[in-house]
């Protein structure tokens, strides 16, 4: 980590645009907020945080609303038509066109990320796959640079670290505990509690119930789907819940959201890397990947266009094709069901 190099790069800039990944989560949003604070400390008067997709998960909505984070919808012109002093940064993702709407030919100035990726290019790159959260990386920067960490920023970063590591139970490292120790005395405890227990919509409950009802288990692998849903963020919540089922150590849940198939995977099996599994199963038809313990994917529904455009028949076809690809990637016998 070279905090001073990042600070000097920002100090030479005039403006900063921080682009979140599609459908940003607390780790991404807290990291963007922290980078913006560093930019202000470096003398940048104006910074913007852009996002694409939706902020639909109840915790993510609460995070934005309770912390009053100023977000703008992604504007391609703002990242393409930049002046020399207009800096572009990615947090919690690393490459143009991968889980973001930035054109692949756009140059990036700053990348701060912990997700697996190859050949990350930027003027400043801090890409650490061995830490549990991007917010951990940003906590290190504000700490080393002695940037003011008020209650809002401290609460945002600590909540993001807790959420990304599933309460310090998934992918956690010593760095997360060290960051949490630094942030703890600076947080707003009431705000942290409200972020941790947001209300849940009935549609999300229904989607999770569908995932429970539609599950199939082969050995220690559970695969399920929610059919069509507007609750994209119910998929990771369902996967988090189903991987705790007795006898299950890998859970993969998928569903049709608008014009795409979304997948979410979780595992507690050290022999399984679900990021590699999803990439192997779907890289040829969509985008998929992630960490060894948690991963996600998105497949355009257009590949099923010949089967029709709505209704149970299409859902059935998607279920059969997606499940078959997952079983093949995991070398699972389709007949071994319980």
TrEMBL record:
Annotated DDH domain residues: 17-161
Lineage top rank: taxon: Archaea
UniProt domain DHHA1: residue ranges: 220-300
UniProt GO molecular function: 3'(2'),5'-bisphosphate nucleotidase activity
Entry EC number(s): 3.1.3.7
Entry keywords, A to Z: Hydrolase
EC class name: hydrolase
Protein name, UniProt field: Bifunctional oligoribonuclease/PAP phosphatase NrnA
High-level lineage: Archaea, Methanobacteriati, Methanobacteriota, Stenosarchaea group, Halobacteria
């Amino acid at each position: 980590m070279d905090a001073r190099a990042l600070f000097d790069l920002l100090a030479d800039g005039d403006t900063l645009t921080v682009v979140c990944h599609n459908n940003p989560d607390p780790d991404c949003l807290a990291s963007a907020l922290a980078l913006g604070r560093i930019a202000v400390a470096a003398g940048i008067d104006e910074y913007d945080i852009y996002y694409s997709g939706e902020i639909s998960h109840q915790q993510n909505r609460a995070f934005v609303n309770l912390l009053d984070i100023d977000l703008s919808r992604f504007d391609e012109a703002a990242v393409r038509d930049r002046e020399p002093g207009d800096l572009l940064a990615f947090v919690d993702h690393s490459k143009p066109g991968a889980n973001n709407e930035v054109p692949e030919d756009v140059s990036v100035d700053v990348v701060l990320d912990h997700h697996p990726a190859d050949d990350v290019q930027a003027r400043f790159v801090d890409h650490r796959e061995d830490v549990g959260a991007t917010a951990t990386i940003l906590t290190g920067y504000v700490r080393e640079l002695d940037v003011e960490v008020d209650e809002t920023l401290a609460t945002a970063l600590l909540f993001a670290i807790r959420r990304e590591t599933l309460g310090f139970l998934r992918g956690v490292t010593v760095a997360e505990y060290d960051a949490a120790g630094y942030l703890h005395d600076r947080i707003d405890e009431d705000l942290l509690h409200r972020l941790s227990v947001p209300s849940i919509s009935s549609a999300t409950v229904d989607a999770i119930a569908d995932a429970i009802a539609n599950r199939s288990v082969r050995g220690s692998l559970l695969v399920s789907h929610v059919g069509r849903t507007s609750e994209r963020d119910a998929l990771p919540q369902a996967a988090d819940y189903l991987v705790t089922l007795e006898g299950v150590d890998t859970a993969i849940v998928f569903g049709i959201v608008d014009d795409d198939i979304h997948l979410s995977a979780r595992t507690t099996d050290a022999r399984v890397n679900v990021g590699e599994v999803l990439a192997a199963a779907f890289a040829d038809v969509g985008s998929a990947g992630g960490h060894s313990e948690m991963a996600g994917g998105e497949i355009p529904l257009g590949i099923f266009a010949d089967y029709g455009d709505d209704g149970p028949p299409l859902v059935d076809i998607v279920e059969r094709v997606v499940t078959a690809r997952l079983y093949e990637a995991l070398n699972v016998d389709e007949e071994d069901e319980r």
